[in-house]
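FW: tagging you since you asked about this chain on Friday. Here's the raw sequence from the shared folder, copied in full. Didn't touch anything.
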Amino acid sequence: MSAHAIEIAIVGAAGRMGTQLLQEAASLDTLKISAAIVAPQSAHIGQALGPEGIIATDDLDAIATVDVVIDFSSPDACARVAELAAGAGVAMVSGTTGLNAEQHRALDQAARSIPLLLAANFSVGVNLLEHLVELASRGFGEDADIEIFEAHHRRKVDAPSGTALMLGRAAARGRDWNLEDVATWAREGHTGPRDNDEIGFQVLRGADIVGEHTVYLCAAGERLELTHRATDRAIFARGALRAARWLAGKPAGRYQMRDLLFGDA
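HL: got it, structure written out here
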């Protein structure tokens, strides 16, 4: 272990992403997992988690003992984690999706005191895709219709995925649109012809699909398809850990993965 390793707390440590974070972090000498936080009444409380046997706790006060907290929990828990991290001066990385407007405001408030990076997807490939989608949307202009397809495992509880929404916002930015004004979330029955100012979403849930996203830009006589397929959940954990290393020591503010990748910060 490095003498200057960044200390990390994981909130949601017993979940799918938390488990992967513990696994991936064990091989890094630049990070040290110091706290593994699980939900209250979790069956994992008191158990040793991950290769390094971190004892699981439901005590959120453990956040105050680390340099960065990585949150993959629930929307309500995420907002509470942000409040506690801000109070303790601890940087925060979160991949929790499905946040409502009030919960986003809580993160905005926290980011006045700490560096906070929220991402719907920590895959480097997906974040490069976001950039390409914005460029393609701007390049085609209104000559191309935009549709976004996403597929995930059957246990995913929110739809469309946070990543699909991220890609939709990128497409909307390319045309100076507000996604909420132009999104079509589903089609059924006699819908009439497609509007020009429309971004459509389609969702598939099944089996153990890790994640797939395709943005279709359909113009007269040609179609551009921009696709990312994830085959290993470890890519998300590696991206989140990379974000934690990068965020430590940054000034207070809201950050995105594009800041990490393209130096926009």
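FW: The helical segments are 16-25, 75-88, 101-110, 124-140, 162-173, 179-182, 234-247, 257-262.
HL: agreed, and The longest strand covers residues 144-152.
FW: great, closing this out.
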